Automatic annotation (TrEMBL), chain A:
Reactions catalysed: chlorophyllide a + oxidized 2[4Fe-4S]-[ferredoxin] + 2 ADP + 2 phosphate = protochlorophyllide a + reduced 2[4Fe-4S]-[ferredoxin] + 2 ATP + 2 H2O
Organism: Meridianimarinicoccus aquatilis
One GO BP: light-independent bacteriochlorophyll biosynthetic process
Protein name as annotated: Light-independent protochlorophyllide reductase subunit N
Functional note: Component of the dark-operative protochlorophyllide reductase (DPOR) that uses Mg-ATP and reduced ferredoxin to reduce ring D of protochlorophyllide (Pchlide) to form chlorophyllide a (Chlide). This reaction is light-independent. The NB-protein (BchN-BchB) is the catalytic component of the complex.
Keyword Metal-binding belongs to the record: yes
From TrEMBL, chain B:
SUPFAM superfamilies with a match to the protein in the record: Helical backbone' metal receptor
GO BP terms: light-independent bacteriochlorophyll biosynthetic process; photosynthesis, dark reaction
Residues binding [4Fe-4S] cluster, per UniProt: D36
Role: Component of the dark-operative protochlorophyllide reductase (DPOR) that uses Mg-ATP and reduced ferredoxin to reduce ring D of protochlorophyllide (Pchlide) to form chlorophyllide a (Chlide). This reaction is light-independent. The NB-protein (BchN-BchB) is the catalytic component of the complex.
Protein name, as recorded: Light-independent protochlorophyllide reductase subunit B
Molecular-function GO term, any one: metal ion binding
Residue ranges of the region described as Disordered: 429-467
Residues annotated for substrate binding in this entry: G409, L410
HAMAP family in the record: ChlB_BchB
Cofactor note: Binds 1 [4Fe-4S] cluster per heterodimer. The cluster is bound at the heterodimer interface by residues from both subunits.
């Protein structure tokens, strides 16, 4: 099996970054609740916020209306804003009611929002009080998903980082995989690593409170998502050691990520090759099929999910695309370094946003594919650009070998679709004549 | 503090966005954190708009608090004006900005922008989306509309249509045609399609047509007072309401009431024999006040349904809906708590729901068909085809929409005839719906076959006691009666169960046997 393609002579680690501070067009961290609550099956996420927060969650969840989802919003009202003591009492009352109605809940997350932060409602104090009150059945943890502090996927980071300090201490040498992934994807990674003789393997977040893991000086951890900077710092504070690696997107990224872990655990290279050969070959084949539509095409990333840099690395190295601009809400240099090292110089890296200026650059560059949020996609399509909504990259299984083809497919589908539709011919003759003029 | 799971309405600034997005040459500067930009996707995804809403968000962050959020607002305001050159600006705060009290209206006034700047008060912790839309349009009207010379020929304004409205786009087309038939011109349609210059000449019309009281009533009341424009009180949804509307408008304008009904099909479709099966269908109606009031009337008078309950989520129309409920002899449910609505539907066990997308989900879970009659909207509520709710075509559309979730008359008859057939049974569902039909399992067939006479070992099943309020006794279904009940076609089974339980309770019976079931059937036969 071939090794990794040689790294470009000069990667992008040190390229200057365009920093912008204008209007941002991104979700806040509350959005993470949509996938986190599916992952943690005995957890409830209670946002302490406004009607806007409730509406955001509902709009981001789209039509996924469940009987009674494991998230909700305690909506602050005029009376709560008048006196602080009241708001804490009110919160106790709502939580008592909720837990009485939902005895299946073992972990409760009190999630801060912009309004709760601005009025300085102390959710840490509330969580402490409630933990005592509802112990041992329910553990109460707080974090902030507010839009004044967190961007989209940063909400997951804040949530996991808040869980780290309360994890039990352990001296065991264990591998910890960090990041909320769909179960099927997670099992694939665990399966490959176990086949190399690596174990025991734990996952944060665990699906249930009782499956929980410990952390300590002999813990080594790998991140599966690039947006987990605070969680990374919290784990290091507990003495755990990070295995730096490119993120496991695409065949190359997955191989590099697995190899970094394998070398930490001293796995022989022939065993590594033996375990990875077949899935690597499958991934390459699957990526090649989708890449047929991507090769030679250009891509422009608006800042959104924080996955932009590893995905740009995948698209440029494995799918033959050229990146024009790679926007990211914020750039965590250390975590991104392995991915940036692998990228060929050329694209503009931008951090933060001034959406009108960025739209202007995008229209001027006329990329073949634009990766952006849902608010921008249809207006860009109407202007003749082809788009991929970034949120799907977070909701869909895209990590590791078996999903590498699906990941490439997410990008090739809009391009294929545009080439398939013959909508001009469907226009009335008058409009066609008009268009020709 | 109130726990919300799903909400019928967004915050008031989303209402303001619905007005701004519906209009042209108007720009909204909203003091808000970055996450609030999610609201753009409501318009670009649900409504498939091909432009971004005309909204600039300041997207302040934690580090800006206390220092330069006010400067951020001014910069955003200035840049928005320079970039978009609108004829007027509206400025406001979302829930978070309301707390930091920067006073966007006051700041914008000091900036000497060369166009009118209209400040909005949107109390996020008290009010909701419909209020925000109504208030925003009222403030725009108050700021810009001036008395002006009337048009020589009779004309009206169409008031209340916004972005993200339930079929507003098509209602405008339908009403414009209807008015044309009456010889009435449309002076201005607003907010949808109007620019600030159009708002200035609202007063040239002879009357206002208030299409949606939820979003247009305050402005209409103001125009009545200040510009002398009377406004219509009947919302022309349904055949009867459309006729009443035409009469009301004709009186305002002193012209003959004429309505071209050549395309109207609802009355004949409803009278034709296939519709016999609609008779007395028990329906529950829920949504915004305007659509609920209209739907209740159509359900009873034009479809022959029985309205067993109704309600609305917007408190602003509570009084009207209570009056309507009284007229129908039912209790009004005024709530924005989705769980309460679900509870009421479960208790009433209607055969059909006329509701919102929320009730569609409730119906899905409870196995009750639902037709959508009102916002909050979903991408499905913006069909590609012409699909109004108002006027003549609106009535036709409503007939089709409401009948669609049900099995057709002839089909219902066949289901009844062949109910013992292994593949043509209850669970097969209507043939025009997707989804695989589930063959009845051999096992449950066998269970149904084993003796229809009461057996000593038959385990009794407790009655559902669905809140008929007929005493505290719990009525128990004997297993044989329960099995017999299963043989009754599903679309009347709920009614049969309730009637039987009520009959048993009235008779002071503790148990329901097969005999009780048939005695009840005879008792209620009509
Ligand atoms: S940005 Fe703030 S106020 Fe807006 S939805 Fe997010 S947490 Fe709530």
């Amino acid at each position: 099996m071939n090794d990794l393609a040689p790294l470009p002579a000069t990667g992008c680690r040190d390229v200057p970054v365009l920093r912008e501070r204008g209007q941002r067009e991104v979700f806040c961290g509350l959005t993470g609740i949509i996938w986190l609550h599916r992952k943690m099956q005995d957890a409830f996420f209670l946002v302490v916020g406004s009607r806007t927060c409730a509406h955001l969650l509902q709009s981001a969840a789209g039509v996924m209306i469940f009987a009674e989802p494991r998230f909700g919003t305690a909506i602050l009202e005029e009376t709560d804003l008048a006196g602080m003591a009241d708001a804490q009492d009110e919160l106790d009352r709502e939580v008592d009611r909720l837990l009485a109605r939902r005895p299946d809940i073992k972990q409760l997350f009190l999630v801060g929002s912009c309004p709760s932060e601005v009025i300085k409602l102390d959710l840490a104090k509330a969580a402490e009080r409630m933990t005592v009150r509802h112990a041992p059945q329910v553990r109460v943890i707080n974090y902030s998903g507010s839009g004044i502090e967190t961007t989209f996927t940063q909400g997951e980071d804040a949530c996991l980082a808040a869980m780290v300090p309360v994890l039990p201490q352990t001296q065991a040498r264990e591998l910890l995989l960090v990041g909320a992934l769909p179960d099927v994807v997670e099992q694939q990674a665990v399966g490959l690593l176990e086949a190399m003789g690596i174990g025991p393997i734990r996952v944060l977040p665990a699906p249930r409170k009782q499956d929980e893991l410990g952390v300590g000086p002999n813990t080594v951890f790998a991140l599966t998502q690039p947006f987990l900077g605070d969680t990374h710092a919290a784990l290091e504070r507990r003495g755990a050691k990070h295995i730096a690696a490119p993120f496991p997107f695409g065949e190359e990224g997955t191989t590099a990520w697995l190899r970094a872990i394998a070398s930490e655990f001293g796995v022989a290279s022939d065993l590594f090759d033996q375990v990875t050969a077949a899935p690597r070959a499958r991934a390459r084949k699957a990526v090649a099929q989708a890449a047929e539509f991507l090769t030679g095409k250009s891509v422009f990333f608006f800042p959104d999910s924080q996955l932009e840099i590893p995905l740009a690395r995948f698209l440029t190295r494995e799918c033959g695309m050229t990146a024009i601009e790679v926007g990211t809400p914020y750039l965590h240099r250390d975590l991104m370094a392995p991915d940036m090292d692998m990228m060929v110089q050329g694209p503009v890296f931008s951090e933060g946003q001034d959406v009108d200026l960025q739209l202007h650059r995008c229209h001027a560059a006329r990329p073949d594919l634009t990766v952006c949020g849902l608010g921008l996609a249809n207006p860009l399509e109407a202007a003749g650009l082809t788009t991929k909504w970034a949120i799907e990259l977070v909701f869909t299984p895209v990590h590791f070998y078996e999903q590498a083809g699906d990941l490439a497919g997410l990008f090739s589908r809009p391009i294929r679709r545009r080439s398939l539709l013959k909508l001009d011919a469907a226009q009335p003759p008058a409009a066609r004549a008009e268009a020709r003029r | 503090m109130k726990l919300a799971v799903w909400t019928y309405e967004g915050p008031p600034h989303v209402g303001a966005m619905r007005v701004a997005t519906a209009m042209t040459d108007l720009h909204f500067v909203l003091h808000a954190p970055q996450g609030d930009t999610y609201a753009d996707l409501l318009f670009t995804m649900i409504e498939r708009r091909d432009h971004r809403p005309p909204v600039t968000y300041t997207t302040f962050q934690a580090r800006d608090l206390g220092s330069d959020t006010a400067d951020l607002f001014k910069t955003a305001c200035r840049e928005a004006y320079d970039r978009f050159k609108p004829q007027a600006l509206i400025v406001g705060a979302s829930c978070t900005a309301e707390l930091i009290q920067d006073d966007p209206g006051g700041m914008a006034e000091t900036m000497d922008l060369p166009v009118p700047v209209i400040p909005l008060e949107l109390p996020s912790y008290q009010r909701k989306e419909n209020f925000g839309a109504d208030e925003t349009f009222f403030q725009i009207t108050r700021a810009l509309a001036r008395p002006c010379e009337k048009t020589p020929r009779p004309s009206v304004n169409l008031i209340g249509a916004t972005a993200l409205g339930f079929r507003h786009r098509d209602d405008i087309t339908e009403l414009t045609g209807l008015l044309l038939d009456m010889g009435i011109a449309v002076n201005v349609t607003a907010p949808m399609g109007a620019n600030p210059t159009d708002i200035a000449r609202l007063g040239a019309a002879h009357a206002n047509v208030l299409m949606y009281p939820e979003t247009g009533e305050s402005a209409c009341r103001w125009m009545e007072r200040e510009l002398g424009l009377p406004f219509t009180k009947t919302v022309p949804i349904g055949v009867g309401a459309t006729r009443d509307f035409v009469a009301e408008l004709a009186q305002f304008l002193n012209i003959p009431a004429q309505l071209d009904e050549t395309r109207l099909r609802l009355p004949w479709y409803s009278a034709s024999v296939d519709s016999t099966y609609l008779t007395g269908k028990r329906v529950f109606v829920f949504g915004d006040g305007t659509h609920v009031k209209a739907a209740a009337r159509i359900a009873r008078d034009e479809m022959g349904f029985e309205v067993v309950g109704l309600g609305c989520y917007n408190r602003e129309t509570a009084r009207d809906i209570r009056a309507t409920a009284k007229e129908f002899g039912v209790d009004a449910l005024i709530t924005d708590d989705y769980l309460e609505v679900e509870e009421r539907i479960e208790a009433l066990a209607p055969e059909m729901i006329l509701g919102t997308q929320m009730e569609r989900h409730i119906g899905k879970r409870l196995g009750i068909p639902c037709a959508v009659i009102s916002a909050p909207v979903h991408v499905q509520d913006f069909p590609a085809r012409y699909s109004p709710q108002m006027g003549i075509e609106g009535a036709n559309v409503i007939f089709d929409t409401w009948v669609h979730p049900l099995v057709m008359g002839l089909e219902e008859h066949l289901l009844h005839m062949f109910r013992d057939d292994f593949e043509f049974h209850d669970a097969a569902g209507a043939s025009h719906h997707g989804g695989k039909s589930v063959p009845r399992s051999a096992q449950s067939d066998a269970a149904d076959e084993t003796g229809s006479m009461p057996g000593a070992d038959a385990a009794p099943v407790t009655g559902t006691g669905t809140g008929t309020g007929t005493g505290s006794d719990v009525v128990t279904w004997l297993a044989c009666a329960e099995r017999e009940l299963k043989k009754i076609p599903f679309f009347v089974r709920g009614k049969a169960r309730r009637n039987t339980e009520k009959f048993a309770a009235d008779q002071g019976l503790q148990e329901i046997s097969v005999d009780t079931l048939y005695e009840a059937k005879a008792h209620y036969a009509r």
